[in-house]
Amino acid sequence: MAEKKGHLPVRTCICCRSKKEKKSLIRLVLSNEQVVTRDDHGNGKGRGAYVCPEKACIEGLLDAGRLNRAFKMKGRFSVHQDLSQYQGFILDG
Predict the structure, then answer these.
(1) Which of 6, 9, 3 lies closest to 27 in space, CA to CA?
(2) In contact, 67 and 31? CB cutoff 8 Å
(3) What radius of gyration do the chain's Cα atoms show?
(4) Which of 3, 57, 69, 83 could form a disulfide with 52 if both were Cys (CB 3.0 to 4.6 A apart)?
(5) How confident is the model at residue 41 (pLDDT cuts 50, 70, 90)?
(6) Domain of 62: which CATH number?
């Protein structure tokens, strides 16, 4: 008899719209100060958005209002330093 596998949560990247396992994506959260930061543990408060750990997706975060749509807010966001520096972003993740 085949073993049953547990449920694997699936999320969509806000840039490329590909669906992947939650643990393979990077979770972003919006702080009260309107700063987008990484949520390394996946339990940060507030609305979260997910992005692939690929250069094209990270660079595309600020294009075409993706963050506005993901966080369901209007206005401008600041992006924390670890998100704006691609190399450090990948190495830390």
Answers:
(1) 9
(2) no
(3) 14
(4) 57
(5) confident
(6) 3.30.1230.10
